[in-house]
Every structure is written in structure tokens, then in C-alpha cells.
Amino acid sequence: GLAAITEMIHTASLVHDDVLDAADTRRGGSAVHKLYSTRAAVMSGDFLLARASVAISRLGKTEVVQEMAKSLEALVQGEIMQLQSTADERLSLEYYLTKSYCKTASLMAFSCKSAALLANHDRESEVAVAAEKFGYHFGLAFQVIDDLLDFTGTSDTLGKPGLQDMALGLSTAPVLYGIDEHPELKTLVARKFGQPGDVQTACELVLDSQGLQRTKELATFHAQAAVDACCSLPESPARAG
Ligand code: FPP
Ligand code: MG
Known about the structure:
Distance between the termini: 20 Å
Radius of gyration: 19 Å
Low-confidence stretches: none
Bound molecules: farnesyl diphosphate, magnesium ion
Mean pLDDT: 95
């Protein structure tokens, strides 16, 4: 039940995200708003979210309702952080990581923690803390790789558009690391790659830096931290997986 709920929330957020990002494809097909309409996408995302909320309450565990509600708040907060940021914030790796936690990792962290709560572990128990930590690091690794693939993937391999982030004005890990070697990227980040040729120039500068390599290392760090957190869970086929 909890896994299905998490998937419904995730799917609802992506249906809405594709409206916000004006992305035409998802998972190898047309995005919902393209297939039907923006109205249909807004309503079906809302509907999935409503259904998920009903299903959460049916689990009958107040603590899980609280954790999952916090995750919904964080998801929206992450999108807001991405939507309205100052130039200084867009240049900050810390802001990027907090935003990534909110928009992506929080759902995984609170869902994993909820799984522990459903198994009657206390909130502060070693198992619940380790489960949340696993979701936190796993989620960050996931989003950092998603941002790397935006540079390196093609729409064929991704099943969704590539090279989108900078076009949307977003500066992700590869750009932020690229700044160390090419400080001129700062100007482009500050103006959200808004002038003709900005995206192309930024792309070339990032590719001519350690940005992609360092981004991969950042993801590897979080993937390893997720494995470490997993290791303090009791042994089980799920943990081994
Ligand atoms: C994808 O990021 C977006 C998210 C993981 C979160 C989106 C959240 C909202 C739209 C808030 C509303 C939430 C609900 C539950 C209705 P991305 O654009 O970097 O990933 P992409 O490359 O796959 O599009
Ligand atoms: Mg998107």
C-alpha cells in the first residue's frame, strides 16, 4: 500500500511538473498535458494526489499521515525554491542541494521512514532513522544523476526531453562545479541563460570542465551513503536487494 501511495504521489508530481516545465514527453510517451490538455493534467494530478491521501489515511497510522504530509509540503516547497530564486541562490551548491532534497529526496526519505513506522518501529528508533537516511541519500543520488543526464542523455535514451534545465533557467550541479574552472559561467547563471546563445555557451564551458565528473562523484557519494544507511537495518532479503 505505502509503495503504491508513494508512486501515486510521485506520478502526480511529474504530471504537474511537465506542465510547469512545458515538457512534451515523459517515460517514452507524450506528457499528459500534451495527450489531453493542461486542464486535464492539472485535474488528474490533483485526483491522484487526492486518491493517495485517502489511501494514506486508510493505513490508519497517524504518524505515517504526518510524515507523508510533510513530504507533500516539501515537494511543493522544492518547486517554489526552483521557481523563485535570487542570483546568489542560483550560484549556491547548498541551495541546489536543499532544493533537490525538497523536490525529490523528501518523498523517498519520508516514505522509507513511513515503512519503518508501519512496522511499528518508533520515530526515533535506529531502524526508522536509518530508513529515512537511506531515502534521503538515495533521493539525492537520484536527482543529481537526473541533472547529469540532462547534459549527457538524449531524448531517445531518457524518454523525455534532454538539455532542458538551462533552457528553464536552472543551474544544476554540473554548472555549479563548472564555475570553479570557468568563472564566466556566473554571469550566465545570474541571468538564467536568458540571452541568445547562453545555453550553448554554458554547455560548452561545462563540457570543458570537471563539472560532469564531479557531479558523478557527488552522486556516488550519496549512493554510498545510502548503502551505509541500509547496512544498519536488520538483515533481510529487502536489505540485501
Ligand atoms: C521533477 O524534477 C519534479 C519533481 C520530482 C517534483 C515536482 C513537484 C511538484 C510539481 C509539486 C506538486 C506536487 C504534487 C504532489 C502534485 P525535474 O523537472 O528536474 O525532473 P524531470 O527532468 O524528470 O522533469
Ligand atoms: Mg521536469
